[in-house]
Amino acid sequence: MADLIRPEIVSPIRNPNTAPELPEEAVLLRIFVGEDDHYKRHPLYEAIVLKAREMHLAGATVLRGPLGFGKSSHMHSAKILRLSMDLPMVIEIVDSLEKINAFLPHLEGMMHGGLVTLERAQVIRYEQAPPPPKRGKHSS
Predict the structure, then answer these.
(1) Can you name the residues that pair with 116 across neighbouring β-strands?
(2) Helix 97-110 and helix 44-54, axial crossing angle in degrees, nearest 10
(3) What is the DSSP string of 32-85?
(4) Which of 4, 27, 129, 134 has its CA 20 to 30 A from that of 103?
């Protein structure tokens, strides 16, 4: 899986005294699985996100699709009359090519089906939101 795409990525020079940042040119790893897929008694999408966090990837987002189909062409739907929903789940992870390539062998061992794509991503902004203002008795 790691040999599917190898875009040329230029990493910026980093100041060792600052928090790690994403390079402006990064990669987007997109993983398509079913809601009912599991890995070691955890939902697969959750296990993937936990592994990404353990490996200090920049971040991961899970999206739940109300409708979709995959290789089998079996329709998965959130309609209330369906007995088996097994909705499509998409996990998106953006980080440097090196960190994504290090993650791929772990992902391969977790998945028994699904789709994995990798594409170039230009990072426009990657910042932590400031904490909300503290509200007390005397704040206006």
Answers:
(1) 31
(2) 140
(3) EEETT-EETTEEHHHHHHHHHHHTT-S-EEEEE-SEE--TT---EE--TT-S--
(4) 129
Q: What pLDDT digit, counting tens, does each position of 64-82 carry?
A: 988 777 777 676 666 665 5
Structure tokens at 122: 């230009």
Place of tokens 């998409």: 90
Provide the b/e sequence for 32-46 (b: ≥16 CB within 10 Å): bbbbebebeeebbbe
Cβ atoms of residues 49 and 91 within 8 Å: yes
C-alpha dihedral over 93, 95, 101, 104, to 10 degrees? -20
Residues forming a β-bridge with 90: 32, 63
Q: What is the CATH number of domain 25-122?
A: 3.30.70.120
**Containing H/E element for 105?**
helix 97-110
CB burial of residue 137 (10 Å; 0-12, 13-18, 19+): exposed
Taking only the tens place, the pLDDT of each residue in 79-122 is 665 555 788 999 999 999 999 999 999 999 999 989 999 999 99
